[in-house]
Amino acid sequence: MQLSAPRLAxxxxxxxxxxxxxxxxxxxxxxxxxxxxxxxxxxxxVPAFTAPATRQDVPILASGVxxxxxxQSVLVRSRVDGELERYAVTEGQDVKQGDLIAVIDPRPYQxxxxxxRARLAQDQAQLADARLDLARYQSLARQSFAPxxxxxxxxxxxxxxxxxxxGDAASIEAAQLNLSFCQITAPFDGRVGLRLVDPGNLVHATxxxxxxxxxxxxxxxxxxxxxxxxxxxxxxxxAHGNAPVLAYSSDNRTLLGKGTxxxxxxxxxxxxxxxxxxxxxxxxxxxxxxxxxxNARLQTGVAHDAVTIPGAxxxxxxxxxxxxxxxxDSTVAVRNISVGYQTGALAIVTAGLSGGETVVVNGQxxxxxxxxxxxxTRQTDSPSP
Length: 385
Prior knowledge:
The protein is an alpha+beta fold and about 375 residues long. About 25% of the residues lie in helices and about 40% in strands. The radius of gyration is 47 Å and the shape is rod-shaped. It starts with a helix and ends in an 8-residue tail after the last strand.
């Protein structure tokens, strides 16, 4: 049966009214007694590692790249010509001053010494005979049996033989010296390097290559450079006592030794604006080696009772440096700070913190003022000086 237009509209209206009632009923069931929907759940806390701002005495260090040098070094060369007979030491051996290092064949120089001694004996015999003749001529001349000229001639012969003996003594001394050069000894305490010539080879006094090296490594030296701006502080520190120097490995992590500044160089390098300094280290553990590259840290002062935080806590912003400080309610606040001295591990805060605050050292990228954090304390190493 086809409905008329008015009846069709009436039925559609009743259907819509029924649907609305169902919706209202559903709402009434979902929220009985007129209670409101639950509020939004707060955002979860952001995990972050934190560390306290502490007060402590901090050594002020100036850092520079340096090179380890032997305290003394010598290229051992032969002072005479001859066959290198043998070495009395092994490569890498520690030696004392005066220890035998190598032996050059001494036989030719022993023969020269024997010849000089023989000439001396010959000339001594001639001198004795000349003196006896002089005494005879002088006795005859007093009795007018010999001319005075003959006496003078004999006296000159005695003087000539005396001079020959003096020359023989000098020849013997030279021969003994050359013979002693056949035994090469250490000029100072040190460590023997790799040999440059094998036994059996001929060596000469004019050779420039040498036969072996000796370096003194107890103590040992380190030369390093600093910017010229550090020189006044270095001079002031040296005037008040010894300036300590620390030597670290090339990765700047391992402490290799503790030494003392010896002196700065007498000129500044105009091309780089730096000055070279030299320090000495006892090096009892042999961790410093000649030719080794190291990072040197020279202590130029001490900041007493300074507020310090880990260097990782310092952030750079448009208005300068800042840190995230954890509040008692576990939210963070942005605190602008000033840093007077900073290394990779530590920063001295001169303004903005008073000590005792807790700062965020990791996870800052997810933070802003008011963010709630789940703080976890990281066990950090003590800042290395």
